[in-house]
């Protein structure tokens, strides 16, 4: 129904364009009125007055559908004590009712044995609520549809009625469009605010349970220790203190990111140098896109490759040499991540190296330096700032990378700097704490937002530093 | 060695290092592709066992006059057992179970679907290709070794002997596994398909596009054409650049905390997944679109203004149409990135076991990459090749999208 009403809004808006235009034309030719704008603009004028109010209301009804659902189903008539329920209980009952609503109206032959026992266990008022919920979608859909036939038609006729020769539609239309355009560009800011506030808000909730200092300076990470003793005492405060220590996650993240950088920096930089200084244009045209394929491959593919092939291979090699290597070693995840990052380093460094003025190269050749000496002693020092910027961007990318470490790194925190041992990362822990039951009143879930905030701040600092460095560097040679 | 010779040797060495690094990077691409294709190609073929199926009315609860609903609801477990007994006469109870394990667990569903499509078949005998179980399939494909002790095999000696006798009678065959393209997810590898995930990704991308494309286009028009550089544009500009570099998992947290937590949108649905992907794609589109708008020469604008067009008419009638190829290219590339993103989908719940094929943006669904992740976490060997096949499908979509982007740029771009 919701889709249907959206389609209606579009069809009605489209037809009102012609209606408004026709009315303007008839004013001109039948009543000989002088129009202040072109007839098209009267059409646009009507469309805008029909379309925007309707579409805003449509979005509103879409987004708050579940809120209306709850208001409709959880009436105090059926559940007298609903006001006293905790949000957890409320969600649980709502869930139960929505499961019931699927089967409550089925005829006898469609019910399975399981369905019947569920029906038997439900209370009287829950059954009524479930029937209400089953009706709700129908009522909501139909009322929606009626609203979206009546509303645009009403608005459309009002707008058309107001068309006269004196009405100058063009500036009005342009004004409305300019507001829409302006609004669109502010959405980028809203998204940033949205990210920041949703992270900060839930992180503050987390720090209500866990001390700030305990989180950042403890060296043990065992979120499963955070359990409720009983309803009156809440969480075991001693266990909470020990449960969330950020340090091993940070070291794990840095360990895997450093392995990745150890792969990506030499390979990426040397590739960039070769492509920019040595390779013929033919080689360059073929090799560059192929290497950039590495950047376009989804990270879930690298994760699969790291877990399936790389990790067992490294384990076998290590055991062959006599080193104890874990099956989830930081090395495997780091290597896969390094391969992923090569194109970031190589293409950014390539741009930077090419931006070094030709005169510097020629000056160096003129005093008899070989090509490699020129590169090492002249070009690289000149391009150093830009190359550093590309490294910082690559590090930020490595720290925020999720799928590779979720699939190939360990889930258990381990305070180590040995790449052969398992290690976990910030992103891995965000995912593990949010997969499965999501309860916003449990530190085990909320910790994901505290971790996310830390990650966001870390990558933000790295990005801003990188962008500033690269910008400064560019200005130097422009 | 003289100093010049040393320097020239160093030169040679350095050039070699560069070449080596480049070749190694190229080698990584090759090995990745090789590994995926060699493990994934098996998923497109399915082992079947040819059997004579007598649709015995005594074992079927429905008759040929029953309605389709009744046919779909009835149980065919007894019929499936009867078919096995007929094709393998003289089995005792223990061996019967072993033979039953060689056929797919969904044997009865396969019979049900056949009856639903041909209700008149009841009482007749038909020759059908029955899907083998995933373990048998893997033995036939050679992915499980046969020459290891029985305890280490999923297929025991008795089943192997049956397999060999079936094989010698020419009853084993391989068919194209169309189930992979038409089914939703399943607990059994032999019946698991990718269509559910594909539709989930499709709806999510649809939402992503309808959010990010209009807003990205209009925002870039505002920033490039309407506003004078100042403090607010600087803030927006820095903002967009930062948004483009925020890790994707943070967008997932935004979706979970804001869209699901605050606005109460449902969990697991492509609507939320698509919006989150749209937030992520928006900066990419804005950056591409701005570059493309900047490429339109000022003479076009001046020409339009000179003949009396308003600013708005200039932009909407002349500048935007001319910049559209660049914007579209950026949009397609952004959508290709969004298609491959997994982490945000995990956080908004699009990673559950969903058997049904979603019919819209409000139905629970998985996405293509999150389905790949789900399968890769499964221990069964049969899912390994499904994972690789899923990756092959995902990569081919990415290649198609990127090729379209290149073609759009080549065909439509105006050179000034």
Topology:
The complex is a heterodimer of chains A (478) and B (416).
Chain A: H1 2-29, H2 39-63, H3 65-73, H4 87-103, H5 113-121, H6 124-161, H7 169-209, H8 212-217, E1 228-230, E2 234-235, H9 237-243, H10 247-278, H11 281-296, H12 299-321, H13 330-355, H14 358-366, H15 371-400, H16 403-408, H17 426-434, H18 443-477
Antiparallel strand pairs in A: 1-2
Chain B: H1 3-40, E1 45-54, H2 68-73, H3 77-87, H4 93-102, H5 107-117, E2 125-131, H6 134-141, H7 157-168, E3 172-176, H8 179-182, H9 195-226, H10 231-245, H11 248-262, H12 270-294, H13 298-306, H14 311-340, H15 343-347, H16 368-376, H17 381-412
Antiparallel strand pairs in B: 1-2, 1-3
Structure, described:
The complex is a heterodimer of chains A (478) and B (416). With 478 residues, chain A is mainly alpha-helical. Chain A has helices at 2-29, 39-63, 65-73, 87-103, 113-121, 124-161, 169-209, 212-217, 237-243, 247-278, 281-296, 299-321, 330-355, 358-366, 371-400, 403-408, 426-434, 443-477, and strands spanning 228-230, 234-235. Chain A folds into 3 domains: 2-167, no CATH class; 210-243, no CATH class; 247-477, MetI-like fold (Orthogonal Bundle). Chain A contains 18 helices and 2 strands. The relative contact order of chain A is 0.09. With 416 residues, chain B is mainly alpha-helical. Chain B has 2 domains: 45-176, no CATH class; 195-412, Orthogonal Bundle (MetI-like fold). In chain B, α9 runs antiparallel to α14 and α13 (298-306) runs antiparallel to α14 (311-340). At the A-B interface, α3, α7, α10, α11 and α12 of A face α1, α9, α10, α11 and α12 of B.
């Amino acid at each position: 129904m919701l889709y249907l009403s959206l389609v209606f809004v579009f069809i009605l808006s489209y037809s009102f364009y012609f209606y408004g235009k026709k009315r303007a034309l008839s004013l001109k030719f039948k009543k000989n009125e002088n129009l202040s704008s072109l007839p098209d603009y009267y059409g646009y004028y009507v469309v805008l007055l029909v379309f925007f109010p309707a579409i805003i209301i449509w979005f509103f009804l879409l987004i708050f559908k579940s809120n209306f659902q709850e208001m409709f189903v959880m009436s105090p008539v059926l559940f007298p004590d609903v006001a006293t329920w905790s949000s957890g209980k409320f969600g649980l009952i709502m869930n139960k009712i929505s499961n019931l609503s699927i089967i409550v109206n089925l005829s006898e032959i469609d019910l399975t044995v399981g369905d019947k026992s569920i029906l038997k266990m439900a209370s009287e008022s829950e059954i009524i609520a479930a029937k209400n919920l089953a009706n709700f979608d129908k009522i909501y859909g139909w009322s929606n549809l009626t609203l979206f036939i009546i509303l645009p038609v009403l608005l459309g006729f009002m707008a058309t009625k107001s068309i006269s020769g004196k009405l100058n539609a063009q500036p009005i239309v342009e004004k409305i469009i300019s507001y829409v355009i302006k609004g669109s560009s502010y959405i980028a800011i809203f998204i940033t605010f949205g990210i920041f506030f949703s992270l900060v808000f839930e992180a503050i909730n987390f720090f209500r349970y866990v001390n700030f200092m305990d989180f950042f300076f403890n060296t043990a990470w065992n979120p499963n220790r955070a359990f409720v003793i009983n309803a009156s005492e809440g969480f075991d405060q001693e266990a909470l203190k020990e449960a969330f220590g950020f340090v091993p996650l940070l070291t794990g993240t840095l360990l895997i990111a450093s392995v990745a950088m150890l792969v990506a920096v030499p390979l990426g930089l040397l590739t960039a140098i070769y492509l920019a200084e040595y390779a013929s244009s033919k080689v360059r045209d073929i090799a560059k896109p192929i290497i950039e394929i590495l950047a376009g491959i989804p990270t879930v593919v690298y994760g699969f490759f790291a877990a399936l092939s790389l990790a067992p291979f490294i384990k076998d090699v290590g055991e062959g040499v006599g080193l104890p290597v874990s099956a989830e070693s930081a090395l495997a995840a780091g290597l896969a991540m390094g391969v992923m990052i090569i194109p970031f380093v190589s293409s950014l460094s390539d741009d930077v190296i090419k931006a070094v003025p030709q005169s510097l190269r020629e000056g160096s050749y003129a005093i008899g330096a070989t090509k490699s000496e020129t590169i090492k002693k002249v070009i690289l020092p000149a391009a150093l700032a830009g190359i550093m910027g590309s490294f910082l961007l690559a590090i930020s990318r490595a720290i925020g990378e999720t799928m590779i470490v979720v699939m190939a790194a360990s889930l258990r925190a381990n305070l180590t700097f040995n790449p052969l041992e398992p290690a976990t990362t910030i992103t891995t822990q965000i995912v593990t704490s949010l997969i499965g039951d999501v309860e916003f009143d449990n530190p085990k879930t909320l910790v994901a937002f505290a971790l996310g905030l830390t990650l966001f701040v870390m990558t933000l600092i790295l990005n801003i530093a990188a962008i500033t460095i690269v910008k400064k560097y560019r200005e130097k040679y422009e | 060695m003289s100093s010049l010779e040393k320097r020239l040797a160093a030169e040679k060495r350095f050039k070699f290092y560069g070449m080596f690094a480049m070749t190694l990077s190229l080698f990584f691409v090759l090995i990745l592709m090789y590994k995926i294709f060699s493990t994934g190609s098996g998923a497109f073929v399915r082992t079947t066992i040819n059997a004579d199926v007598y649709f015995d009315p005594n074992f079927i609860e429905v008759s040929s006059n029953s309605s389709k609903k009744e046919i779909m609801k009835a149980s065919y477990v007894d019929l499936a057992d009867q078919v096995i007994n007929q094709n393998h006469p003289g089995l005792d109870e223990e061996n019967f179970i072993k033979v039953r394990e060689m056929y797919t667990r969904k044997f009865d569903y396969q019979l049900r679907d056949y009856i639903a499509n041909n209700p008149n078949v009841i009482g007749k005998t038909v020759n059908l290709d029955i899907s083998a179980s995933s373990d048998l399939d893997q033995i036939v494909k050679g992915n499980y070794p046969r020459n290891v002790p029985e305890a280490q095999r999923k297929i025991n000696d008795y089943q192997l002997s049956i397999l060999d006798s079936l094989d010698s009678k020419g009853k084993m065959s391989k068919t194209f596994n169309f189930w992979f393209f038409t089914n939703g997810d399943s607990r059994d590898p032999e019946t698991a398909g990718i269509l559910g995930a594909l539709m989930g990704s499709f709806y999510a991308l649809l939402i992503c596009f309808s959010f990010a494309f209009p807003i990205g286009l209009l925002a870039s028009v505002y920033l490039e054409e309407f506003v004078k550089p100042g403090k607010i544009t600087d803030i927006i500009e820095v903002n967009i650049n930062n948004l483009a570099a925020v890790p994707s998992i943070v967008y997932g947290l935004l979706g979970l905390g804001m869209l699901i937590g605050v606005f109460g949108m449902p969990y697991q649905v492509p609507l939320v997944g698509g919006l989150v992907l749209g937030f992520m794609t928006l900066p990419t589109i804005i950056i591409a679109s701005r570059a493309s708008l900047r490429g339109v020469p000022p003479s076009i604008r001046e020409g339009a203004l000179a003949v009396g067009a308003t600013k708005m008419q200039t932009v909407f009638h002349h500048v935007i149409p001319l910049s559209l190829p660049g914007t579209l290219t950026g949009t397609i590339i952004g959508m290709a990135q969004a298609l491959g993103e997994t982490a945000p989908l995990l956080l908004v719940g699009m990673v559950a076991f969903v058997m049904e094929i979603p019919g819209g943006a409000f139905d629970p669904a998985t996405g293509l990459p999150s389905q790949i992740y789900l399968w890769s976490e499964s221990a069964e060997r049969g899912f390994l090749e499904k994972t690789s096949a899923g990756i092959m499908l995902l990569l081919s979509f990415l290649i198609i999208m990127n090729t379209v982007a290149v073609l759009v740029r080549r065909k439509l771009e105006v050179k000034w």
